[in-house]
Amino acid sequence: MKDVLVLGCGCAGYYTALLCASKGLDVALVEKEALGGTGFRFGALPVKMLLDGIKDDPHMSFDELLEDYRGKMAELQKKLESDLKESGVSIVFGEGHFVGKDAFQVQDKVIKAKNIVIATGSRPVNISKVPYGNRILTHKEALAMERLPKDMLILGANVEGIEFATIFAHFGVKVTLVDMVDEILQGNDEDLRQPVIDGLKSLNVDFVTGIKVSEVDESQDGAVVMLETGEKLKAEKCLVCLSRLPNIPKGAADVGIEYDEVGIKVDHNFQTGVKNIYAVGDVNGMCLMGSAAINQGIAAALHILGRKDSLEDISYEGIPRAIFTIPEIAGAGLQEWELKEKGIKYKATRIDLAKTWRGISRRYKDGFVKVLTDKENKLQGIWMVGRDVSELVGMHGILLKEELCAHKILSSLFVHPSLSEALLDASLRLI
């Protein structure tokens, strides 16, 4: 009997398996496809690789970008496999089902384990009359395209939709973004969103907002999207970037695992109602972000290991996040619209990256860092837009979680010269 069986090798499963195995537990991992899941193989990281290629060399052709991307993906697969095997994780490929609270069958093999961690992720909801894969695509098929279409409809002006729109529009594809809400990148302050919107408009991207989609279908020569107004939109391809559904393993209900259309029900330690079975990442529906999946995988592993430092009462409000567009948006904590909604009186100060010492040396033309504090001068949010700002956000979540005041930042040392000094400059204006 194994100590731990992990189902799925996306972000959550990888970190759970690696941490448990590195601490001496006997771990097996089941994956129905290639290692990596959505986060590493079909979603977040691959899209960023493509965007990085464009940012590093804007004149690169699409074929050159694909070649570079495939090389990086091959390296990624090798890393995932070597990391797991070097830690002693047994990898089993195939799709299976629960045959008991401590047993999971893959083909003709039954794997028994003291603890089972479900990390099977999520999938796009199917809103089309036909299966995805031909004219109507999910992110998985979009990443596998070898030829660019002349035009494309993207349903969902969210993070995923905007990032894909940036890639395809850069290479001359006529992109139309469609969303039922009025705002592009809803949930972000206007000063953060507008530079990205302006960038998309400069790439000839059109926006159809505030209108619901009633039907998605294929025609002989493309994809057809029917709007509630009766208007039809047509393009060679349609990429669906909308809601997602949890991938519930077969037999889960039979062993007493409770779930609904959102995901598997878990407690603060990510245990299901069956105490030796955990559910982490997208499959529990708590927060569909790779960073949250990693966090939950680590938390479940720590709990299995009996560590007192297991993570409890995790809140995903104001967690660090980034949108890898051109320019990028990144930050942590609350934004101005949220502070207004909560009735919190606040101060905002903004520093242009072009005016930092490092920004001058790197010839930055635009972008800024914005710091938000309450009336007691406690940090409420740190947000920014500009080139590579995703690299500046990493530890800002800790600053906000500790509810530090601006003067604490002033007593800290920053690397000089660096873009991170924008936070220092902003804090000087808040005292």
Tell me about this structure.
This protein folds into three domains: 184 residues, FAD/NAD(P)-binding domain (3-Layer(bba) Sandwich), CATH 3.50.50.60; 105 residues, FAD/NAD(P)-binding domain (3-Layer(bba) Sandwich), CATH 3.50.50.60; 108 residues, FAD/NAD-linked reductase, C-terminal dimerisation domain (Enolase-like, domain 1). The strands form five sheets. Strands 1, 2, 3, 4, 5, 6 and 17 form a seven-stranded mixed sheet that branches. The protein has a five-stranded parallel sheet with strand order 8-15-9-10-11. 30% of the residues lie in helices and 26% in strands. Helix 3 crosses helix 4. The chain starts with a strand and ends with a helix. The protein is α/β, with parallel strands linked by helices. 43% of the residues are buried.
Draw up the topology in text:
Elements: E1 2-7, H1 11-22, E2 27-31, H2 37-42, H3 44-56, H4 62-86, E3 90-93, E4 96-100, E5 103-106, E6 109-118, E7 122-124, E8 136-137, H5 139-143, E9 151-155, H6 159-170, E10 174-179, H7 190-202, E11 206-209, E12 213-219, E13 222-227, E14 232-235, E15 237-240, E16 244-246, E17 277-279, H8 290-304, E18 321-323, E19 328-333, H9 336-341, E20 346-352, H10 357-361, E21 368-374, E22 379-386, H11 396-401, H12 406-410, H13 421-428
Parallel strand pairs: 1-2, 1-6, 2-3, 6-17, 8-15, 9-10, 9-15, 10-11
Antiparallel strand pairs: 4-5, 5-6, 7-16, 12-13, 13-14, 18-19, 19-22, 20-21, 21-22
